[in-house]
Structures are given as structure tokens and as C-alpha cells.
Amino acid sequence: MVAVKSAKVPTMECETEHFLMAQRQLDEIAEEMGLDRELHERLRYPKRALIVTVPVRMDDGTVKSFTGYRVHHDVTLGPAKGGIRFHPEVNLGEVSCLAMLMTWKCALMGLPYGGAKGGIRCEPWKLSIGENERLTRRYTSEIINLIGPDKDIPAPDMYTNEQTMAWIMDTYSINVGHTVPSVVTGKPVSIGGSFGRTEATGRGVAYCARRAVSHYGIKGDSPTVVVQGFGNVGSIAAKLLHQAGYKIVGVSDVHGGIYNPKGIDIPRLFAYLSEMGKVEGFTGSTPVSNKDLLELPCDLLIPAALGGQITEENANKLNCKIVVEGANGPTTPEADLMLHERGIIVIPDILANAGGVTVSYFEWVQGMMHLFWSEDEVNQRLEQIMGRACDQVLELATKSKLSVRMAALRIGVSRIAEAKRLRGLYP
Ligand code: NAD
């Protein structure tokens, strides 16, 4: 046998850089909280991971194979919950990392769920509607043994939407022989979706921002806000903070940003955006690049576009008091440390953008009960759950001197660890 030069053999195929980052975060908090070694070991890897090949008949008559994934990180507290993304960078490590973060997020919010994530490696923008539908339906049938309202409930994520969920729900229902709306969340309201789901993430971000402003005693009647990404999450957060009397001084989208230190008229910006398709050029504002936007002076910075926006390169140039993470993973671990040292508070994604999964939970509950709530009821319950989680995290961070991210993780991880300890290790 030929001798192979010794290299670290991964314990599991998911151990990409992305996944190891999430695992290191767990290791760090496990050490800090003195987590039982065996419980810690059981939480370091996904419980199960399925890789499937999804053959699709393309519009030109050829057949193309795509790779799909569905990962359950943990199911101690209930069925697994997490989005499905369609993107060329989807891989086992990324999906496993995001599934682990979903475990902590659901536990932190007190939802009876474990963490999951799924995806298909593809370029969704190159697919016709028909190809997208056939890809979604075949993927659903390939992972059908993992999903179900009591097992695993997918939701939309990058480049998937209400329509994707409707196709998954239909494919699942046809296979089991009856209609099962609660197999997915993020469905259109007409087939069992919840009122308030579309606005839920942005609403939760705005809510966390206000709680943080009051907890950290930011002075002044109208704190100033910069929002990167004026899509679903960013625009709703900006709208609600504007309504609450905050001054939105900068916003951006993929085309670039705008700045107005006197405050942007957000309702008029919505009208402008629907006509022009971008925020650039809005009356009374000066153009600013997405890079410079992050460094504008403000009380609150809300990254609500992409991951990896606040890095070692710009963390020292940020000019805000609080970062509220609307996007998933907008701050790299190195930047996170630098911000902590500079005394800039970061409200982490697993808390700040958890409004989406919380209303997804409401959608699932309403579907199981066949009893639907009004939008006001949904929003009230969301504020109750977000409020409780925010208070617990901010109090722990202040008392323990942990960063807000570590405090949030500590609460999430300790809830799972306690449940695992009580349930024991089978057999
Ligand atoms: P979206 O597609 O509605 O909006 C994204 C926005 O970001 C758009 O305005 C787009 O123009 C802008 N954008 C894209 N690339 C950019 C760039 N390079 N620089 C600046 N802006 C850019 O998406 P969304 O649903 O609002 O999601 C935003 C983020 O929030 C994502 O990271 C997503 O994973 C996260 N998130 C969303 C939800 C949800 O319920 N929608 C829940 C949890 C987390």
C-alpha cells in the first residue's frame, strides 16, 4: 500500500470552513459555560444529512442532474425547522452550518423545534419557471422520507419563495394522498399561509433595535439608522423604525446607496422604488457606495442584505453604536471580536432575524389547529416572544459581560443541553 502523507482526516464530510466556524462558536460557548463534555460532543455534528441527485428534464429536452441536501442538526425539542435555498454555492458544509444555527435560534426563541436546512446547488436565475417547478418537485420527492409536519418543516430561503413552498406542499400532499398544509411554512395565505409572515423578519429586526436602544440608553428622541439592503427585511425594518420616530439616514440596495443626514422620507422612498426599481437617485439624497454606507455615522447599523459584510477590513471604520444583524452572518468572527473590543454592541442574527421563524411557527400551529389568526394577533404574539427573548439575552449579556452573541448562544445551547440531559442517551 502506498503511504499517504498524514493530513487531518475530517470526522465528517460537512467539515468545511463554514461549518467549522459554527462548530468553533459552539466550542467557545461550551467552554465558557462548562457544558458537560458528552453533551457538547453530541451537539458538534448534524444528526443526519441526506445528499440527493435531482434529475430534471430541461426545456431543451435534455436531462440535467443537480445536487440537493437536507440536514437535521438536532431534533431534541421537536421537528426540525429550516429553509431551503437554491444557489450555486450550496454545499454540505454550508447547509450543516446553517442547520446548527437554526437549532440555537429556535431554542433561543423557545420554539418546539430542532434545526434544519436544505438546498440545491443550481443557478436559479438561469432556470425557467417550468424547470424550477420540476426541480423543486423532484427534490421534494427525493427528500420526502425526511420531511413532514411532525418531522421536518421546510421554509423559503435564498432564491426560494411562496411559490416554491406551494409546489413542495402539493408534491408532498399528492404522495401521501391528502392535503398537508403544515409540511411547509412561508406558503401563500390562500393555501394556509399566515398573515404577517412576509413582514415578520423585518418587524422582529425593528423590535430588537428598539429594545436595544432602550436597554443601552441611546440618547436623543430620534436615533439615526443606516440600513444595508432595502429588500423584504431591510425595507420593513426601515418602515417600522421610521414610523416609531427614528431617523433613517442611509439605505442601499444591490445598485448602491443613498444618504441624507436630515432623514429619508421612507414612505416616499417606497413609492420611488416601486417606480424606479432602485433607491439611487431619490430626491434630497446623496449617492453613496455600499462599502461607504456601512461607515456612515449613525446610532444603529442594520446589515440586511448578505453575509460577510462587516469584516476585518472595515470593522474599525464603523461609526455606529449598535449593529442589528438582519441578514444571516453579516459579521465575520474576526470583525465580531474587533467590534466587541471597540464597545460596539452587535445584536446577533439568531436573535435579531428570528421573527421569520417565529411567525413560521405560528403558521404551523394555525395549520395544525385549522384555526387562523388575524394579522394583529400574529403581530402581538410575535412581539411577546421577541420581547421575552430580547430581555433574556440583553440581561444575561449585561450581567455576565459576555457579548450579546455569546449570551444568545449560551441561552440557546443550554436549553438544548438540558433537554438532551433529561432525555438521556439511547439505548
Ligand atoms: P431580499 O432579496 O428581499 O432583499 C435583499 C436586499 O439586499 C435587496 O434590496 C438587494 O438589492 C440587496 N442587495 C443584494 N446584494 C447586495 C449588495 N451586494 N449590497 C447591498 N445590497 C445588496 O432578501 P431578504 O428576504 O430581505 O433577506 C435579506 C437577508 O436577511 C438575507 O441575508 C437573508 O438570509 C436574511 N433573512 C431573511 C429572512 C426572511 O424572512 N426574509 C429571515 C431570516 C434571515
Radius of gyration, in angstroms, nearest whole number: 22 Å
> What's the overall average pLDDT, rounded?
95
CATH architecture of the largest domain: 3-Layer(aba) Sandwich
CATH topology of the largest domain: the name is Rossmann fold
> What oligomerization state is this entry in?
single chain
Low-confidence stretches: none
CATH superfamily of the largest domain: Leucine Dehydrogenase, chain A, domain 1
Helix and strand arrangement:
Layout lengths: L16 H17 L3 H7 L4 E10 L5 E12 L5 E7 L5 H18 L4 E8 L7 H14 L9 E5 L5 H15 L20 H19 L8 E5 L3 H12 L3 E7 L2 E4 L6 H11 L9 E3 L1 H4 L6 E4 L18 E3 L8 H9 L3 E3 L1 H4 L2 H15 L5 H26 L3 H20 L4
Parallel strand pairs: 3-4, 3-5, 6-7, 6-10, 10-11, 11-12
Antiparallel strand pairs: 1-2, 2-4, 7-8, 8-9
Helix pairs in contact: 1-3, 1-14, 3-14, 4-5, 6-7, 6-12, 6-13, 12-13, 13-14
Nicotinamide-adenine-dinucleotide binds next to helix 7 and strand 7.
What do you see in this structure?
The chain is an alpha/beta fold and 427 residues long. The protein has two domains: 17-177, Leucine Dehydrogenase, chain A, domain 1 (Rossmann fold, 3-Layer(aba) Sandwich), CATH 3.40.50.10860; 200-352, Rossmann fold (3-Layer(aba) Sandwich), CATH 3.40.50.720. It contains 14 helices and twelve strands. It has helices spanning 17-33, 37-43, 92-109, 129-142, 162-176, 197-215, 232-243, 266-276, 290-293, 333-341, 349-352, 355-369, 375-400, 404-423; strands at 48-57, 63-74, 80-86, 114-121, 152-156, 224-228, 247-253, 256-259, 286-288, 300-303, 322-324, 345-347. Strands 9-8-7-6-10-11-12 form a seven-stranded mixed β-sheet. Strand 11, helix 10 (333-341) and strand 12 (345-347) form a beta-alpha-beta unit. Helix 1 (17-33) runs parallel beside helix 3 (92-109), helix 3 (92-109) crosses helix 14 (404-423) and helix 4 crosses helix 5. The chain is globular, with a radius of gyration of 22 Å. Nicotinamide-adenine-dinucleotide (NAD) is lined by residues 158, 201, 228-234, 252-254, 290, 304-306, 326-328, 353, 356. The site of nicotinamide-adenine-dinucleotide has 21 residues, from helix 7 and strand 7.
